[in-house]
Amino acid sequence: MDVASLTGLELMQAAADGKVPRATIADTMGIGRMEIEKGRVVMHARATDRHLNPLGGVHGGFAATVLDSVTGCAVHTMLDAGVGYGTVDLNVKMMRPVPMGEALVAEAKVTHISRSLGIAEGTLRDASGTLLASASATCFIKQKQG
């Protein structure tokens, strides 16, 4: 499959379906099943003992990284083939400690898209729906050259 010819939505769906390799950060962060639609992404994740801070709790960077992934991927679903993006601003609010070893759900929706910027809002919740963290991400959109 020629990934360069796929739209962002097609590429994200192919990764979710196992037709193309997923980003290696998904393995690092314990991201499993993904649900993909235009402008919305859901990722299922689980923090492990690899994600602990020196005090034995799940490091805040776990929530930040999962939220960066889900918001960026939501923006990516809105892009044409050959168009790239990168996070330029990520604002994360932590509400509760992230539990280790429990099923977590990260969800993001695009709130703005233009030729040069994409903005998405995301949440990280436990399996019962309790809000653990939220984020707003701004992504720079890099149009194809030529």
Q: Tell me which CATH architecture applies here.
A: Roll
Write the element-wise H/E pattern from the N-terminal end onward. HHEEHEEEE
Count the helices. How many?
A: 3
Radius of gyration: 15 Å
| CATH secondary-structure class | Alpha Beta
Brief account:
The protein has 146 residues and is α+β, with helices and mostly antiparallel strands.
Walk me through this protein's architecture.
The protein is of the alpha+beta class. The protein has a single domain (about 5-140), classed as Hotdog Thioesterase (Thiol Ester Dehydrase, Chain A, Roll). Helix content is about 20%, strand content about 40%. It has helices at about 10-15, 25-30, 60-75; strands at about 30-35, 40-45, 85-95, 105-115, 115-125, 130-140. The longest helix is centred in the middle third of the chain and has 17 residues, at about 60-75. The chain is globular, with a radius of gyration of 15 Å. The model has no long low-confidence stretch (mean pLDDT about 95).
Summary tags:
146 residues, Thiol Ester Dehydrase, Chain A, 6-stranded antiparallel β-sheet, 3 helices
Please specify the SSE layout and strand pairing.
Layout: H1 8-16, H2 25-28, E1 31-37, E2 40-45, H3 60-76, E3 84-94, E4 104-113, E5 117-126, E6 131-142
